[in-house]
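User: Here's a protein and a ligand (zinc ion). What would the complex look like?
Assistant: Let me lay out the input and then the predicted complex.
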Amino acid sequence: MKLFSIALTTVMALAGGTALAETASLDIIPQPQKVEVGKGSFKASGATFNCDPALDRNTLDLIRVFSSRLSLLAGRNNSFATPVGLDRALSRNQVKGFIFLLDSSLQNEAYTIHVTPKNAVVKASGYNGFLYAIQTLKQLLPDGIFTGEKASGKVTIPCCSIQDSPRFAYRGLMLDCARHFYSVEEVKKFLDVAAMYKINRFHWHLTEDQGWRIEIKKYPLLTEVGAFRSGTQQTYDRRKNDGIRYGGYYTQDQIRDIVAYAGKLGIIVIPELDLPGHMLAAMASYPWLGCTGGPYEVWTKWGVSDQVLCVGKESTFEFLFNVLDEICELFPSEYLHIGGDECPKKEWAKCPVCQAKIAELGIKDGDGATKEQRLQNYVTKRVQDYLETKGRKIIGWDEILEGDLAEGATVMSWRGTKGGIQAAGMGFDVIMSPTDYCYLDYKQGENDRETFVGAGYARSKFYDAENLYNYEPLDGFDAGTTAHITGVQANMWTEYIRNDKELFYMLIPRLQALSEVQWCAPANKDYGRFTGKLGKHLKLMEKLGYNYRPL
Ligand code: ACM
Ligand code: ZN
C-alpha cells in the first residue's frame, strides 16, 4: 500500500499539546483562508456522494463529474444520491461519505470543507463555491484525479477543516490571441489551468493591428482579409520579418463553445474589442473605417500604429455597433472590454472629418486634455451608451481616463498604478494590472534569452514569480477608495510568444503566484511557504503537459 504524502509545510502544534488540530498548508494553492489538519483520513474510494436536492442542475453535474473522476482514480464506483432531509441526518451525524450541502449563509464563491474519518462535508452557496471546494479537494488527492491515472494505493483525504473565500471578486487572466493565434484546444488548456487556481475572468484579446480573430457575420472581410498578415516581425528588430503568411480566427460556433467551456470552469469570458486604436486589421478589411481611406495592410510589425479609426464618420459607429451586436449575442458577460489604449491622435489632428466633428461637438482643449483626447472620450461615451441599452458595462485600459470619463466605466490600470489610484479616487471601479507585476510577456530572468526566442525577446525587464507574488494591489490607494478595486489581472501579450510551449513557460509558475495575490489576504501570504508548495504543483503541471519555468 502506498499512501500519498502530504507535506505539512507549516506545522504549528496548538498550545498545550493536547489539541487534535494543527494548522498546515496541505500544499493548496491559492492558500485557503483557514486550514486546520486533524488526525487520520477519510476513505474517498467507493464513498457515496450525498447531494442536497436543493442544488441546481449545473452544480449537481459538476459534483457528478468529480465523482466519476474519483471513481476512475480509485478504480471503484462512487454512488450518487440526492436524499431529502440530508441536513437533518447530518446534524444527527448519520451520514457517511461525501456530503454537498447548500448553505446560503456563505458569501458568493466561499466554501467550507470538513473532513473526518466518517464523512467529508462541503458547503457553499452557489456554483463557484462548490467548484472551488472541489478544486481544493482535488489538490488533496493523488495527481491521478487530474491526469486520469489510476492510483496505486488507497485513495484518502486527510482529516481537515477548511474555511475559504477570495479576497477579490475579479480574478482575471488575459490572453492576446491576435499577435499570435492559439487554437480552441490551446485556449481550453489555458482555461483549464487558470481554473485550477480559482481564476474567474478570462479577458480575451481578439482584435488587433496584426489580426482580427472573431467571425462577424455582417462583415465577412474582417476574417477573410483581417485575420491574416503577410509576415511577422522577428525579434526586436523591426526590419526583420519572416515574410510568411500568418493568421487564423475563431468561428462563432467555436466562440460559443469556449464561452460554455469556460462557464463550467466558473470563468466569465470578457472579450476585448480594442478601439479606436489597434484597429488596423479591421481597416485593412474595410478601408472606409480610416481617416485617409487607405489602402491599409494587416500589420506585420509590433508597436503602436498611427492609423486608427476615423471617428468623425457615422459609418464608423454603425460598424462598431453592428460588431457589438454580434459580440453581445456571443458573450453573456455583463462587462465588455473596449480597449482604449495607445490611440495616437496624429491622424485625427489632420483629418477634416474628425476636425469637423470636434467643431460640431464644441469640444475644447484645456484642463490637461487636448481636443483629440476629448474626441476619444466622445467615442468611449457613445460605445458605453450603446452597450448600456443592452444592459452591458464597459472596461477600458487606463487611457480612457484621460479627459473626461463617464460614470459607470471600469478602469483597467496598466501603466503602473497611478491610473488606478486616480480612477478610484474619482469613484470609478478599478482592476489592477500594472506592467511591473502583471505583464507575463516580460521575461522571468536575466538568462531567459537562452531558453527560447520568445522569452528571450519578451521585453527588456524581467519580472519573476516572486516579483508578482509580492505585489500588494492596495498599495498607494487612499483607505476610503479601496472598495473600488474589484480585482487583479495578469496579461499575456503574445508578440514574442508564438506557441503553447512558450505560452506556458511564460505563464507557470507566475500563474500560481498571481492566484495568491488575487485570492489571499495579505496576512495569509508567505512566499517561503508558497515556494515550498510549488514543487508538487510543478510536477503536476508536467504530468498534464504544461511547459513551465522552474523557479
Ligand atoms: C496595453 O498593454 N497596451 C494595455
Ligand atoms: Zn478622421
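Summary: The chain has a mean pLDDT of 93.
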